[in-house]
């Protein structure tokens, strides 16, 4: 049956309530099984040998001595992962990142792996693998990598997106451009122009659970993988492609996940574990250490961004432009492009142009981090907007309200917006008591806006009505942020039954059709749409069963408030049949009752937020404390408001860490100096204030309940909001993230000339 | 790896004297157990000293507090007389790691780990603390200042272990304080640490002072110029500025992942000044 996803206003009974999450008890009692909690009989321990060099040609690897270690069952190198990528550059990048082929491209790049009967044997073997490196010049800084004399990471990379095509290789993989209008004409109309350059350092997603998996390849060509991931169907595809397996023969089960934030959206260790298992003929468990997580998995880009914004004295922005350079790690991707698309998405601009450069450096392969690339672009743009407001002498909120995008605005990256929340979040900020609260000594206030696209994608869901009337909901999007609770609320709403009667599980790849991963803030958006569809299909089945039970025509059976009703009085006021009544008789009315759905969830609905932040800066040490923080964001419809608030707070918390302290520190030798939580400083509880939240609900027209994704936008404004607050507190424009105490003190010294 | 849990100091020192280079003393284990996780770490022998009599006790004598080498830092905070006498030392010991870590870690371990950033060490040096050392040849005493010789290195000879830390009873009208700078509020390591101990005469004039800095050189440093800047003053601005200048000038830090030379030199002065003010207030209240 066709599914109508259009928004229909309705009163809710379950949606919008705040029941306890079904996975909570297991998590707080330690029973929940995370990636490293799976074990198989006879399983081996895997360890990965990693390059100590930032850039080196691998001339020879000799594993003979390591193989002779008692207890070692398999050692693999790139030779055991032959290139099956068939010209697919993105897939090749994943393959080469999993196991270096001709060159080690960053400190920590995997070059070999061992599977042994225990940790001791594996560790001993690692030390006996001989790798003959030819160390090459390296580059880790984004601007240095773009210089003509920079060491070239990949001689086959010629910048795409420029005409004419360059004749020499470079570290710029691609140039992208967005915008409309005529910026030169726009700047000519401006009374005031702000122009400034910004830098942000590389941050890691900082998920508490390291990557972990157990791989088991069987002699009959089938394989199993238990893994901590944001998308087991995507991991299945990646692994099958890289190992030459048939998709149907690889069954992937996702574990509970201790954070992903985009960092668990493509494979690192899993193909290695599968290749080791294939070679050893036994299951292999691979758990990355924290040091490996930092050195070899998922950071976001370091950036260098120039922004120019012009406005008339009355506050009307006449033109805006930005040039964005993003590190990609050793492989070209589209991180700067995402930055270029999101830069000015909050504003209604006649003349706008953004240019993005994807820059290759000897750092780990960049992966997504919560609204990937948008926070850095927002930092630069929103800092410049703040400065512009000061130059004009206008309130920072007023200036943004005056230039905010609204329904019908052509966005800076192309599409024309439907109903959106930027204006309402700004109006809410203006009215918020935080905005007018008095500030203390050495304190400053900042605000900033943020945008994220959101995504829908392929989704497949099963809803089974058990004979006792309880419901099992099988979904294929990994529950990262409480989606089992939200989806149970959705099913309860549709079926008209209690939340407690629904059990949501994450099905493995063998039991459901393909699902895109939990990224793009799509988990609850897309799976709720599929759950509504599946529930409506199940209701159709229940209507038929009621018609059969009553022996009346189907069209005379109506579904209301969780019951089948026989229409009108012509059947003598038959008592309505509940889900439980219908389920109890299902064995005699046609067998099990289920609803299925498969769909592409289109129309995710863009998302906007406005953050307000107060900081206090110690002028003698440059130490910054966030004293008050408020998040205002559009959720479309908050299905489970507590977990929406949790997403708002989580993004702000991560943004605070990134803004103030988190950064990859490289030595002159290109080695990462701080691969651990001691010196890579994510905030601890006592570093954070209570983060206040305000949920706005501007319904998404493309979802039956109006739901929008909420997971990512909350990390977009914080860098800028905090930078604006610090800049206002110290009287110096802070243009380099993180604003660590040495950077702030140094800026203050420059200001006072001491 | 061999694990031994001797019950006498003599047995402990004998075990260590006969051992290879890869022998380690285990008290709280908050440094050792973490290091043991590293691929590069090798231990042949671990000697756990927690079963040796007296190691887990704080003893108050007529003129000193004797802190056994296995006393966890949290226990120092629960010792009322010690906390009243040396609040700066106790607060330094209770800045280490986290609440959980403080339940295990010891000031002797903090000292022997010989990190330039050790929190309790500048406070102990400012307090002019000594250590009693047991070795194959008997026991000896040494100043805390003389134990670390560089990052990870101590002046202890093979077979020697620290038996206890000895804090003299403070004189009347004296006070101490320790401050450190960390980017995070907790679970962090000092980028700069400053310990100040001073005593006043009846008129509130500083009679004597000791100023020690951590994390601004390869080992803890005693800044005598800083102390001289305080003596004979009531911590007027000029004295505090002279103290700060002496501490900045006396610092010999490096640029690393935790901070820059410029930052550390400047903040060393700031923290010394603030610690001196706290110590002065405490001294005046006694």
UniProtKB/TrEMBL annotation, chain A:
The keyword Oxidoreductase applies. Pfam families: Ald_Xan_dh_C, MoCoBD_1, MoCoBD_2. This is Xanthine dehydrogenase family protein molybdopterin-binding subunit. It comes from Thalassovita aquimarina. Keywords: Molybdenum, Oxidoreductase. It comes from the Bacteria. Signal peptide: none annotated. SMART domains: Ald_Xan_dh_C. Residues 29-137 form the Aldehyde oxidase/xanthine dehydrogenase a/b hammerhead domain. The keyword ATP-binding does not apply. InterPro entries: Ald_Oxase/Xan_DH_a/b (IPR000674), Ald_Oxase/Xan_DH_a/b_sf (IPR036856), Ald_Oxase/xanthine_DH-like (IPR016208), AldOxase/xan_DH_MoCoBD1 (IPR008274), AldOxase/xan_DH_MoCoBD2 (IPR046867), AldOxase/xan_DH_Mopterin-bd_sf (IPR037165).
UniProtKB/TrEMBL annotation, chain B:
Pfam families: CO_deh_flav_C (PF03450), FAD_binding_5 (PF00941). Residues 1-172 form the FAD-binding PCMH-type domain. Keywords: FAD, Flavoprotein, Oxidoreductase. SMART domains: CO_deh_flav_C. This is Xanthine dehydrogenase family protein subunit M. It comes from Thalassovita aquimarina.
């Amino acid at each position: 049956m066709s599914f109508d996803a259009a928004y229909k206003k309705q009163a809710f009974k379950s949606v919008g309530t705040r029941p306890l999450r079904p996975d909570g008890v297991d998590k707080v009692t330690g029973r929940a099984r995370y990636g490293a909690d799976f074990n198989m009989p006879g399983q081996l321990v895997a360890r990965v040998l990693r390059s100590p060099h930032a850039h080196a040609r691998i001339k020879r690897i000799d594993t003979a001595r390591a193989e002779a270690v008692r207890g070692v069952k398999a050692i693999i190198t790139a030779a055991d992962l032959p290139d099956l990528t068939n010209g697919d550059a993105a897939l090749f990048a994943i393959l080469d990142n999993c196991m270096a082929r001709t060159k080690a491209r960053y400190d920590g790049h995997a070059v070999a792996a061992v599977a042994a009967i225990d940790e001791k044997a594996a560790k001993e073997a690692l030390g006996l693998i001989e790798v003959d490196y030819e160390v090459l010049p390296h580059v880790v800084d984004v601007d240095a990598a773009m210089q003509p004399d920079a060491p070239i990471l990949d001689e086959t990379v010629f910048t795409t997106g420029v005409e004419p095509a360059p004749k020499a290789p470079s570290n710029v993989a691609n140039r992208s451009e967005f915008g409309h209008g005529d910026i030169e004409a726009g700047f000519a109309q401006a009374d005031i122009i702000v122009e400034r350059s910004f830098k942000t350092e590389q941050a890691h997603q900082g998920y508490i659970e390291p990557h972990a998996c157990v791989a088991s390849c069987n002699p009959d060509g089938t394989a199993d993988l238990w893994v901590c991931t944001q998308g087991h169907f995507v991991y299945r595809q990646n692994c099958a492609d890289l190992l030459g397996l048939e998709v149907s023969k690889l069954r992937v089960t996702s574990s509970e996940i201790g954070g992903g934030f985009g960092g668990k959206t493509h494979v690192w260790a899993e193909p290695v574990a599968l290749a080791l298992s294939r070679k050893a003929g036994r299951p292999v468990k691979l758990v990355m250490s924290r040091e490996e997580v930092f050195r070899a998995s998922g950071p976001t880009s370091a950036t260098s961004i120039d922004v120019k914004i012009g406005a008339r004295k009355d506050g009307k922005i006449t033109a805006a432009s930005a040039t964005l350079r993003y590190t990609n790690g050793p492989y070209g991707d589209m991180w700067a492009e995402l930055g270029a698309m999101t830069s000015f998405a909050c504003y209604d601009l006649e003349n706008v142009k953004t240019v993005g450069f994807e820059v290759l450096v000897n750092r780990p392969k960049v992966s997504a981090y919560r609204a990937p690339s948008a926070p850095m672009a927002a930092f630069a743009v929103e800092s410049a907007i703040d400065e512009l407001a000061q130059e004009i002498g206008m309130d920072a909120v007023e200036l943004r309200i005056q230039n905010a995008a609204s329904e019908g605005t052509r966005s800076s990256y192309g599409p024309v917006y439907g109903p959106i929340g930027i204006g309402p979040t700004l109006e809410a900020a203006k009215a918020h008591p935080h905005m007018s609260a008095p500030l203390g000594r050495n304190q400053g206030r900042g605000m900033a806006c943020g945008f994220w696209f959101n995504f829908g994608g392929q989704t497949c869901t099963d809803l089974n009505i058990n004979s006792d009337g309880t419901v099992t909901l099988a979904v294929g999007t990994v529950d990262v942020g409480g989606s089992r609770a939200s989806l149970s609320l959705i099913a309860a709403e549709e079926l008209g039954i209690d939340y407690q009667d629904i059990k949501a599980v994450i099905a493995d790849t063998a039991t459901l059709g393909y699902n895109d991963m939990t990224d793009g803030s799509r988990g609850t958006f897309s799976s709720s749409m599929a759950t509504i569809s599946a529930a409506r299909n199940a209701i159709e089945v229940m209507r038929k069963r009621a018609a059969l039970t009553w022996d009346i025509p189907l069209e005379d059976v109506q579904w209301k408030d969780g019951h089948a009703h026989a229409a009108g009085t012509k059947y003598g006021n038959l008592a309505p049949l509940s889900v439980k009544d219908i389920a109890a008789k299902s064995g005699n009315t046609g067998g099990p009752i289920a609803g299925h759905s498969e769909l592409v969830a289109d129309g995710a609905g863009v998302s906007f937020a406005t953050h307000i932040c107060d900081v206090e800066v110690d002028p003698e040490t440059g130490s910054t404390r966030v004293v008050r923080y408020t998040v205002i964001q559009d959720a479309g419809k908050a299905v489970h408001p507590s977990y929406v608030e949790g997403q708002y707070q989580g993004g702000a918390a991560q943004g605070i860490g990134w803004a103030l302290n988190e950064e990859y520190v490289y030595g002159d030798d290109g080695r990462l100096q701080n691969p651990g939580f001691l010196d890579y400083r994510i905030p601890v509880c006592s570093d954070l204030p209570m983060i206040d939240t305000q949920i706005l609900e501007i319904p998404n027209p493309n979802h039956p309940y109006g739901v929008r994704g909420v997971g990512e936008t909350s990390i977009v404004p914080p860098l800028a909001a905090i930078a604006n607050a610090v800049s206002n507190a110290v009287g110096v424009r802070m243009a380099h993230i993180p604003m660590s105490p040495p950077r702030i003190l140094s800026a203050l010294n420059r200001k006072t000339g001491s | 790896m061999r694990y031994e849990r001797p019950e006498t100091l003599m047995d402990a020192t004998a075990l260590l004297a006969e051992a290879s280079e890869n022998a380690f003393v285990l008290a709280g284990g908050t440094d050792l157990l973490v290091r043991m996780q590293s691929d590069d770490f090798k231990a042949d022998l671990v000697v756990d000293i927690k079963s040796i009599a007296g190691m887990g006790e704080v003893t108050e004598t007529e003129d000193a507090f004797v802190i056994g080498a296995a006393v966890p830092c949290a226990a120092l905070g629960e010792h009322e007389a010690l906390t009243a006498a040396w609040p700066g030392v106790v607060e330094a010991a209770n800045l280490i790691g986290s609440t959980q870590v403080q339940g295990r870690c010891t000031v002797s371990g903090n000292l022997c780990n010989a990190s330039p950033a050790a929190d309790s060490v500048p406070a102990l040096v400012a307090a002019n603390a000594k250590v009693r050392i047991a070795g194959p040849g008997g026991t000896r005493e040494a100043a805390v200042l003389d134990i670390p010789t560089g990052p990870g290195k101590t002046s202890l000879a093979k077979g020697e272990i620290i038996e206890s830390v000895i804090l003299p009873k403070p004189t009347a009208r004296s006070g101490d304080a320790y401050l450190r700078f960390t980017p995070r509020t907790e679970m962090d390591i000092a980028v700069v640490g400053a310990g100040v101990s001073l005593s006043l005469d009846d008129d509130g004039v500083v009679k004597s002072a000791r100023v020690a800095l951590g994390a601004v050189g390869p080992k803890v440093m005693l800044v005598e110029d800083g102390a001289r800047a305080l003596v004979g003053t009531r911590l007027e601005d000029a004295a505090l500025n002279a103290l700060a200048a002496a501490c900045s000038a006396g610092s010999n830090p490096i640029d690393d992942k935790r901070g820059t030379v410029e930052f550390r030199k400047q903040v060393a002065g700031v923290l010394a000044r603030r610690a001196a003010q706290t110590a002065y207030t405490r001294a005046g209240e006694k």
